[in-house]
User: Which sequence fits this backbone?
C-alpha cells in the first residue's frame, strides 16, 4: 500500500494494530475517490477509429510506448502503455468526438461532445472504475478540428445517460490552444432532457482542455483528481499546469506528498480525519474542509461548544453560540469567481428523489448558517459565514434555496452572525 506508506506508516500513529488493515483501505478509498467495484459495460459497433488514433498519437507524442492497442469498434477504449520512465499504465477511455455546433439556431462559437454509444437512451449507464486503481478511467472529447482534448470528471457523470451533451465555448478552446493546458467551470441542468433524471449529478463541473503533448500530464492528473470537489479539482489542474509535469511521480514530487500539500495537514492528522468520518464515498477534501472549519469555530469568540455531525442528510456542525444552538452547513466555493470577482457556491445536492425534483435543493430549515470554504479561490483554509435567512429562495421551488450563491454583501462575514 504505497499510499499508506506515503502517509507515514503504522509506527507513527497511535491507532491499534488490529485496525491498521482497515485504515489502509479507508485512507486509499477516500483519498483517491474510489467507488464501489462494478462490472465493465462494453458497447460494440462503435465508430471510434479516428478518436483511437488520436489517443495513441498523443501518447506517442509524450514519449509513451503503446503496449496494447484498443479495439476502435468496442467502447470504452481499453489500452496499455509504458511511460518514458518505464511505468506501465492501463486506461479505460470513454472518448467521444467533439465539434462545433452546426445545428440551425445555435449561436456561433458553441462546441460540444455527446456522451453516447449506441441508441439506448432510456436508462442510466454505469461507468467502470477499477477499485484496485490499476486502471485509470478517463472521459473526454477529441476535438479534431481544434487539435485538442476536452475532459470532464467521469465520476460526476456516473451514472450517465445517452445522449448527454458537454457544451463549451470557442473562447475557452482558444485559451487552451494558446497555453496547451486550460480549465474552466460549467453549470449543468436537465432543462433540455425529455426524461427526468433524479440520479444525475447536476452540480457545476470543472472542464479541462489540453494539447496532445500534455496527455500524460492529464492521465497523472486524473489519477489524483477523480471524484474531487469541483473547486479543488480546478485548483489542482492549475497547479499541475504550472509544474510542467509529465507523470504522476513528478506530480507527487511537486511539493512533498500531494495529499499533505493539498489538504494543509500532516499525514498523522489526515489519518485522524479518516478515522473520524464514516461517509466513505464523500471526497476527502470535503471532510478536510470541515476539519479546518471545526478548528476555526473552536477559536471563534462567543462559541461555547462545537459538535461535528456525521450523519447523512444532516448539517456538518451544531455549535452553541451565545447560548443558542446553531446548525452549520459547510460548502466549498468553486474555483472560478463572478464577473465582479466574488467567490460563488454551487449550492445543491448531487441527487434528487424520483417523486420530488425539488429535493435536489436545500431547505431553509435544514440549517441556520452556511459556511463557504474559500480554499479553492484563496488556497487558504478560511471561511465566510451567512445566515440562512439571508439566502435567496429557489426561483422554481420557492420553499427551497437557490443554487447560485455569491459570497458577497453585508450578510457575509468572517465571524459568525446567525441573524
Assistant:
Amino acid at each position: 500500500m504505497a499510499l499508506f506508506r506515503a502517509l507515514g506508516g503504522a509506527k507513527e500513529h497511535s491507532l491499534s494494530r488490529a485496525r491498521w488493515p482497515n485504515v489502509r483501505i479507508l485512507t486509499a478509498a477516500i483519498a483517491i475517490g474510489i467507488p464501489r467495484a462494478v462490472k465493465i459495460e462494453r458497447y460494440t459497433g462503435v465508430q471510434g477509429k479516428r478518436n483511437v488514433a488520436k489517443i495513441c498519437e498523443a501518447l506517442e507524442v509524450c514519449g509513451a510506448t503503446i503496449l496494447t492497442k484498443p479495439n476502435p469498434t468496442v467502447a470504452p477504449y481499453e489500452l496499455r502503455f509504458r511511460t518514458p520512465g518505464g511505468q506501465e499504465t492501463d486506461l479505460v477511455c470513454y472518448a467521444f468526438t467533439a465539434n462545433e455546433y452546426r445545428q440551425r439556431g445555435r449561436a456561433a462559437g458553441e462546441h460540444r461532445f455527446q456522451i453516447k454509444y449506441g441508441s439506448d437512451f432510456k436508462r442510466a449507464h454505469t461507468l467502470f472504475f477499477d477499485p484496485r486503481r490499476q486502471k485509470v478511467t478517463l472521459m473526454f472529447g477529441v476535438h479534431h478540428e481544434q487539435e485538442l482534448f476536452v475532459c470532464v470528471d467521469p465520476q460526476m457523470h456516473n451514472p450517465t445517460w445517452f445522449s448527454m451533451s458537454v457544451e463549451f465555448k470557442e473562447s475557452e478552446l482558444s485559451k487552451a490552444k494558446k497555453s496547451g493546458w486550460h480549465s474552466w467551470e460549467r453549470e449543468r441542468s436537465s432543462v433540455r432532457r425529455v426524461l427526468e433524471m433524479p440520479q444525475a449529478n447536476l452540480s457545476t463541473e470543472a472542464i479541462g482542455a489540453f494539447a496532445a503533448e500534455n496527455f500524460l500530464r492529464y492521465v497523472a492528473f486524473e489519477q489524483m483528481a477523480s471524484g474531487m470537489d469541483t473547486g479543488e479539482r480546478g485548483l489542482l489542474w492549475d497547479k499541475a499546469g504550472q509544474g510542467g509535469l509529465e507523470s504522476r511521480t513528478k506530480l507527487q514530487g511537486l511539493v512533498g506528498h500531494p495529499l499533505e500539500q493539498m489538504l494543509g495537514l500532516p499525514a498523522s492528522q489526515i489519518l485522524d480525519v479518516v478515522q473520524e468520518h464514516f461517509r466513505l464515498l464523500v471526497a476527502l477534501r470535503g471532510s478536510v474542509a470541515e476539519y479546518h472549519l471545526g478548528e476555526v469555530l473552536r477559536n471563534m469568540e462567543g462559541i461555547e461548544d462545537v459538535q461535528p455531525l456525521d450523519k447523512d442528510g444532516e448539517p456538518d456542525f451544531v455549535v452553541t453560540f451565545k447560548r443558542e444552538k446553531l446548525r452549520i452547513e459547510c460548502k466549498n466555493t468553486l474555483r472560478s469567481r463572478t464577473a465582479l470577482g466574488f467567490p460563488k457556491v454551487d449550492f445543491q445536492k448531487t441527487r434528487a428523489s424520483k417523486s420530488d425534483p425539488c429535493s435536489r435543493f436545500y431547505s431553509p430549515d435544514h440549517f441556520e448558517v452556511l459556511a463557504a470554504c474559500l480554499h479553492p479561490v484563496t488556497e487558504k483554509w478560511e471561511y465566510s459565514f451567512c445566515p440562512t435567512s439571508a439566502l435567496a429562495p429557489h426561483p422554481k421551488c420557492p420553499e427551497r434555496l437557490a443554487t447560485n450563491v455569491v459570497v458577497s454583501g453585508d450578510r457575509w462575514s468572517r465571524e459568525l452572525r446567525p441573524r
Q: What stands out?
A: Residues 267-406 form a domain with the Trna Endonuclease; Chain: A, domain 1 fold (CATH 3.40.1350). The chain has two domains: 43-252, 267-406.
